[in-house]
Amino acid sequence: MSQSLNTGHGINIRNFKKAILLSENFGQVYAPCNEHIKIPYMLQHWKYLMKVNEEYNIKFHHTRAKIKERETIFRELNKKVTKVCAIAGSLNETAEFKYEVKKLADLIRGFKNKKNGQTAGDERDWAYNLSYTGRTENFKNLIHLLYSSALYKPNERLFTLQNLYAEHASMNTLNLEIDRLTVDVQRCRTIRNSALYDAETGVLETMKACRCYIKALFGTGSEEYKKFSALKFRVLPKKYQEV
Predict the structure, then answer these.
(1) How far out from the chain centre does Cα 181 lie?
(2) pLDDT, tens digit, for every residue of 50-77?
């Protein structure tokens, strides 16, 4: 059994299949008029759920791997920027140039402290500068600034303009890929959650109707009803519920 069926939404999918099997065991006596709780319909819906849940999990884990890859790259970025800033400081350049290099380096590293009395716009700018997109953009601005200096010609390959531009391109590509993957994950999650929690056709509503029908067939105190009602289904967490 897939590990994804042992926790969270997967428990609902797993118990849905158990409910179908219990209903099948009732034989010909199980003959509801509600199409949504007939065996063929529930089996088809369970297969669909398995498919969309697997698709979601594959995309989720792929996206998480890319996010971890980006976290590793950006953890190293601060060290790289600090060294680049030190190389710029060693040049026979103007004080203004060195100041601008340090200013951009501080933005990338998040060294600039927020001051009292900032406007909402200032706070938004600060949050943007600390984001992956903002740090990537400021890294590009730093490279452009270094390019403007005829004296910035380091012998160390890691700090050459060519290498820095290549690193920026890789970071930017990764940001765009993660943005795309995140949207795709959200789409897959919405599809899966709709199949489970839709107010009219979702599994939870189907199980409510099914439980009522079995109560009507066998009675509340019957073993058949007790076995069926023992299957627990979790509601959708509030953070995923649409307002």
Answers:
(1) 8
(2) 999 999 999 999 999 999 999 999 989 9
